[in-house]
Amino acid sequence: MLFRKITKCIEEYLSSDSDRMLLIDGARQIGKTYIIRHVGQKMFSNYIEINMEEDKLGDRIFADAKTTKDFYMALSLVAGDKMRENENTLVFIDEIQAYDHLLTLVKFLMKEKRFTYIASGSLLGIALKNTQSVPIGSLDVQHMYPMDFEEFLYANGVGRDAIESMRESFNKQESLSDAMHGKMMDLFKKYLLVGGLPKAVETFVESRNVIEFRSIQREAHELYGVDASKYEEDHNKKLKIRRIFDMIPSNLENKKKRVVIKDIEDKKWKRSDDYIDEFDYLISAGISLEVKAISTPTYPLVENSGKNLLKLYLNDVGILSGIFYRNNIKAVMTDIKSINLGSVYETVVAQELKAHGYDLYYYDNKKNGEVDYLIDDADNLSNIPIEVKSGKDYTVHSALDKFLSNSEYNIKKAYVLSNEQKVYVEDGIIYIPIYYIMFFQNISNVVEEFLD
What is the three-class DSSP state of 377? Predict the structure, then answer.
């Protein structure tokens, strides 16, 4: 079984007597159903699972379950023999967003406590916007993402002791040995190819067959394209949402990597504000990651951000590398001068930071240029700039240098991530290998790691 950090969160919830239903939210194909099923069946002798998407397309047993009485009646039709005591009966409502009224019903189900409940959702942010009575105080929503690099390492046989040793080296700002660095760079590049979709990771571990895991990634990307406008009733909006989603890879190949507004509908007079709903839709669906522009980097960053000059990244680096390079692994695994991996490296950093609890921002200034990422530095009431370098010129970063030279920003440290093995500090910049991004954690937001 693939190790997922969110396991601990699920186990703790199911062991508690919470009056809030835990809902695991995230894009499809990231393993939500699998991990809830695994933990639920292990902890409860009576395990009931209902997929509301399947019900909506099939018998529609729960379509009219507007009261708890209606819900129990519908549940008895599919699992009457398992409806026993609260202590030993778990009801897993998969894809709960398929029926808006079930989200409203959560409050009353949790109040009656007839069973223990857990739920999962895709496009949940969108569904909640369409729900007339949002169950505030009755839902505990935890966002789940594709497997991060650390989880990928566990899947490939790297032990806990090795990872904890590397974590200690990161905290002490120490380099790894030549052999360890070589091994980590090899696995990191493989992660760029495979990404974090559990089925793709499992296929890679079992067969090492690039054609097989690329096929899984293509199917997921096509599904995301369908999901991109699934719950939008306005046909014209559907087309724009799908267009923006399809543009993401080509935008990332541009120098500035921003969403090119005029290309969405080929209308030069359109502005970012004209597509706020479409952007929110893609981000709420979990299939794209937003990175907002910051021109005045004061703490906290959220107070200085907007939708202008927005960057969108795909939620999985493996999908992106598959779009760019198809079945050719040499583009990633070997140093080819004509291949620029900048957008792939930036995508994996966005994916890691988001999975580890950070909101994503970048610095944009007409005079000084751009810095790839900014994250809040709560200890110093400032922020930390991060530059991502995929080539050998990792010490060249004029925008970062200008950023750090501004004393008003009160920057205490900055990072440059690259393929370089050596960890060192120079002119206030900490140079670290790219794989150390797995140890950046926003402790206040991230789910703690856990191993059996």
Answer: strand
Residue recorded with tokens 């991990």: 35
User: Residue 56: left if φ>0, alpha if ψ -120 to 50, beta else—which one?
Assistant: alpha
Tokens 């990422």 appear where?
373
Cα(212)–Cα(389) distance, integer angstroms: 30
| Planar angle of CA 415, 420, 421, nearest 5 degrees | 105
Q: How many helices (H) and strands (E) does the chain have?
A: 18, 13
Task: Indicate if the alpha-carbon torsion angle 377, 170, 12, 42 is positive or negative.
Answer: positive
Q: Read out DSSP for 221-271?
A: HHHHHHHTTTT---HHHHHHHHHHHHHHHHHHHSSS----THHHHT-TT--
End-to-end CA gap in the chain: 11
* Model confidence pLDDT, tens digit, residues 379-395: 999 999 999 999 999 99
pLDDT at residue number 169: 98
Token digits of residue 270: 């359109």
Q: Across 297-447, where does the E strand assignment appear?
A: 311-314, 361-365, 369-377, 382-388, 414-418, 424-426, 429-433
Q: Please, which residues bridge with residue 93 across strands?
A: 50, 119
DSSP string, 94-105: ETGGGSHHHHHH
Taking the C-alpha atoms of residue 376 and residue 444, their distance in angstroms, rounded to an integer, is 12
Interatomic CA distance for residues 320 and 227, integer angstroms? 17
Look up residue 21 and give its amino acid: M
| pLDDT at residue 426 greater than cutoff 80 | yes
Rounded alpha-carbon distances, angstroms, from residue 227 to 94, 199, 272, 283 = 16, 19, 22, 12
| Tokens 């009646």, located at residue | 73
Determine the length of the chain.
Answer: 452
Under DSSP, is residue 311 helix (H, G, I), strand (E, B) or coil?
A: strand
Alpha-carbon span 53 to 58, nearest angstrom: 9
Residue 360's contacts (CB-CB under 8 Å, 6 or more residues apart) are 289, 290, 291, 292, 350, 353, 354, 373
Q: What is the pLDDT of residue 415?
A: 98
pTM of the model: 0.94
Distance CA 101, CA 93 (A): 13
Q: What is the rounded CA–CA span in Å between residue 187 and residue 194?
A: 10
Q: Tokens 């937001």 identify what position?
A: 445
User: Cβ neighbours of residue 330 under 8 Å, at least 6 residues apart?
Assistant: 336
